[in-house]
Specification:
The chain has about 450 residues and is of the alpha/beta class. Helix content is about 40%, strand content about 15%.
């Protein structure tokens, strides 16, 4: 059991007026500071955040950082599940403690760990800023996540066609699109619409590490994104958050038994979202989290996008890759954003091929070629590059019927729309098979049965 406590270091505040907090490892008597960069948020958006909104934001930040600070290979008996006990200060501890079992179930499912949480009284105000000018507060009626990925691009484009007074929220870090990538996409949105749209970006910095390494799975990143969105929704009295994600990735059934835990993330899985939703209601945060694409494949998202001219101009600015910062095995590296061989990239490539309306095809770090994938066993050293490709091909060769998809979904969690979800998964894997069959080298194609 790892025992942690969130503490107030010295009562100091950052340049936004937010209380400086830290995560303390009790056994090690060592603390890791919580550092937040909200990019000119209060100067630009001009609002005083409520304590309730900061409760949910800081809690999401703590969970994300703890997930990253505790390496599974050191702390988990089975190299995966960690036992985490944490004491967290909030402004309404009685309310949160009465509902903590719901959020514990959500986190257990999200990260694969065993969480034990106790909430206690926050001794100081989260936020103090007497110099804040609150004139001309912006108007917000809709909030949407904008990660810099392809799904969020489609979701943002569609929302701009349908709604007005939109606030896009973004978290930037080393695992995906950076601050400038997100801002560039938003600026192009702004230049292509007369509607009132705004952008709020933030970044959470890792403090001092407890161990020599961090955990690299980042299973709790989605809670961080949602925490930032919920923070804004609470302060602008918005009752709906849009979370754009294709259903294939959202459900993310394991491709094989070894991928059941570490490689099958649950960041937007409907079971997790429902549990989080139940918790929010229990602590009087009445905000609905909606994924309009839960029953759509990524290819269907692209094909049904409401502004294809804008979509086509921005596709190559997005990042889908889970390996975008690890370019050593890539054949091409300069100016390339996506590796081309991880599961996220394979779904991206198959969806764009399904869409079929682009005049140019983007370049990837690795193509589906036997030599670039290092499938030739005589090549030294043997690369780990093909792992995802082979896992996907072996899965496609199982040729599941709809009833098998339903069983696989149920093994993860019971969800609504089971039959429609199974059909969506089938369509998504058809997109992937079609792409590989039409575009891979002959040696790769022959692996498909």
């Amino acid at each position: 059991m790892i025992n942690l406590e969130i503490t107030i270091e010295d009562g100091s505040r950052d340049n936004n007026g937010l209380l400086n907090m830290s995560i303390k490892n009790i056994e090690m008597n060592k603390s890791s500071n919580v550092s937040i960069n909200m990019v000119q948020i209060f100067k630009t958006l001009k609002f005083v955040p409520s304590e309730k909104s900061l409760d949910i934001l800081f809690f999401a930040i703590y969970v994300h950082l703890i997930d990253n600070l505790l390496p599974r290979d050191i702390l988990a008996v089975d190299n995966w599940q960690r036992e985490i006990r944490i004491k967290v200060p909030v402004s309404e501890p009685l309310l949160w403690n009465n509902s903590k079992q719901i959020i514990v179930e959500a986190l257990d499912f999200l990260t694969g760990d065993e969480w034990n949480i106790e909430f206690y009284e926050l001794s100081e105000k989260y936020f103090l800023n007497d110099e804040l000018d609150l004139e001309d507060t912006i108007q917000v009626e809709n909030i949407c996540l904008l990660s810099g990925g392809l799904d969020s691009l489609v979701g943002a484009i569609d929302l701009i066609q349908e709604k007005d007074n939109i606030l896009f929220v973004s978290h930037f870090d080393g695992a995906g699109a950076n601050l400038n990538d997100q801002k560039d996409i938003f600026d192009i949105f702004q230049s292509n619409t007369s509607k009132n749209i705004n952008l709020s970006q933030f970044h959470v910095y890792d403090g001092e590490a407890f161990y020599d390494t961090h955990d690299g799975n980042l299973r709790a990143r989605s809670l961080l994104f949602l925490g930032f969105a919920l923070f804004h929704a609470s302060n602008f009295n918005v009752n709906r958050i849009y979370l754009p994600e294709n259903g294939l990735i959202s459900i993310n059934i394991p491709l094989n038994e070894s991928r059941t835990s570490s490689n099958s993330t649950r960041t937007t899985h409907p079971y997790f979202i429902k549990k989080l939703q139940d918790f929010l209601i229990s602590i009087d945060i009445n905000v609905e989290i909606v994924n309009p694409y839960q029953l759509k494949t990524k290819g269907e998202m692209l094909s049904e996008c409401q502004n294809k001219v804008l979509l086509n101009s921005l596709i190559n600015k997005t990042i889908s890759c889970s390996h975008s910062k690890r370019k050593e095995p890539w054949t091409r590296r300069t100016g390339i954003r996506n590796c081309g061989y991880c599961i996220s990239c394979l779904i991206r490539r198959s969806s764009i091929y399904h869409y079929g309306e682009l005049e140019t095809v983007e370049t990837y770090g690795v193509n589906l070629d036997i030599h670039e994938l290092k499938l030739d066993k005589t090549t030294k050293p043997i690369s780990k590059v093909p792992t995802d490709v082979l896992a996907l091909i072996n899965f496609l060769n199982k040729k599941y019927e709809l009833s098998k998809y339903e069983r696989e979904i149920a093994l993860i969690a019971n969800i609504d729309n089971m039959e429609e979800t199974a059909k969506m998964l089938d369509r998504g894997y058809v997109e992937l098979r079609k792409y590989i069959d039409d575009n891979a080298s002959d040696e790769i194609k022959r692996l498909l049965l």
